[in-house]
Amino acid sequence: MAELYQTQRAMRNIRRAALQRGVIGILDIGTSKIACLVLRFDGTGTFRETDGVGPMAGQVNFRVIGAASTRSRGMRRGEIDVMAETERAIRTVVAAAQKVAGVRVDHVIACLSGGRPSSYGLAGEINLDAGRVHDHDVASVMAACDAPDFGRGREVLHAQPVNFAVDNRTGLGDPRDHVGNRLSCDMHVLTVDGDVIGNLIQCIRRCDLELAGVASASYASARASLVEDEQELGAACIDFGGGGTGVSIFIKKHMIFADNVNIGGQLVTQDIAQGLRIPLPVAERLKTLNGGLEATGRDDRDLLEIGTGSGEWDTDRRSVSRADLIGIMRPRVEEILEGVREVLDAAGFDAMPSQQIVLTGGGSQIPGLDGLAARILGPNVRCGRPLRIDGLAHQFTDPGFSSAVGLALFAAHPQDEWWDFEMPASSYPTRSLRRAYRWFRNNW
Q1: What is d(CA 386, CA 371) in angstroms, rounded to the nearest whole number?
Q2: Domain residue extents for the chain
Q3: How far is residue 269 from each of residues 55, 281, 398, measured CA to CA in Å?
Q4: Torsion of CA 365, 368, 373, 378, to 10 degrees
Q5: Annotation: CATH topology of 266-330
Q6: Which fold has domain 118-193+423-437?
Q7: Are residues 9 and 57 in contact, defined by beta-carbon separation less than 8 angstroms?
Q8: pLDDT tens digits for 296-315?
Q9: Confidence label for 57 from pLDDT (cuts 50, 70 and 90)
Q10: Are 429 and 122 spatial neighbours (Cβ–Cβ below 8 Å)?
């Protein structure tokens, strides 16, 4: 049991070592692009070993001292498909970011967008023998959360306490020192396919890097794109990526649900390439520069010159109207939004006190998306950009880098996770979350 206790805390310890060194890397490994940020910490924050509730790494200030991005290779729908190609792309982008920063990066935090995420709400309750909540009671009530069978090969990516209650007083963020007889806890657990995480760990190790943390891309994007009031009052963040569309719901500054629609911007590009019989790079450029979702009378007359890539000048050049391009893109984007609507309905988003929806990710920049989303998802829709962080160049502040910025915030100000708490071995119940941490034991 002592070995299990150590492996549960391994990721936090690796992150602590990186913070003490003062430099850590951020890797957003997406289907369309891979981005790397190099963060330098000023050392004013302290790593608090004894805190039961609160950010485990302390509140530390940081600055981006290096950033780079490159076209993703070897990725398919948010998961590694060809290991060697993804390894080369990661090595390329890390080397470029290190060159800008002028320092070597040994530890990285990465995000994961694939893996078929599933959300669970767990609850635990204990008696307070002393009549008051102590630090060890917080750890014990989290250990008392009875986990269901997540399924074969499923592993936990996040396990965060989202609410505490002492007797009949609920909605507590920090229950310590409250007087009462019973302490209860609600926890959100996000699971993914273990093989997807294992492949990510293996790929990063092949790049001679040490993994200091893994986070959900949907969680990271929301941390960067939702303003403080939206995180507190409740909002859904829709992350339009290349390989898929992430959905996360926040309330009381905690993620309470996450899922993924397995359709992304790359499928829109494929539709354009097939519909206009042009190469994928030409289709991607056409989508980026001339794409849209709302056709007007002018779009029928607005002709776009395209080429098939054959190299024959006489036969290669032809024109299509922008209305034709919009007619190809709109059905697929509608399909994505309908999938998002189904996910939100399944999560009970209609019962939330706030119906705010924030669109982010590279695909959110398609002109007209906010209007179409308002008709399908609800009227309270806005396009979100990531928060500005110190030292980040302007070209890395568009919605396509929300996950990377969110990971930087995750590194500096992590929210509580189950493995962050001092857990006495005697408090592990028979059917606790220990089964969910096999991948920590196997990979660290």
Answers
A1: 20
A2: 118-193+423-437, 266-330
A3: 41, 9, 20
A4: 120
A5: Nucleotidyltransferase; domain 5 (3.30.420)
A6: Dna Ligase; domain 1 (3.30.1490)
A7: no
A8: 878 777 788 886 655 555 55
A9: very low
A10: no
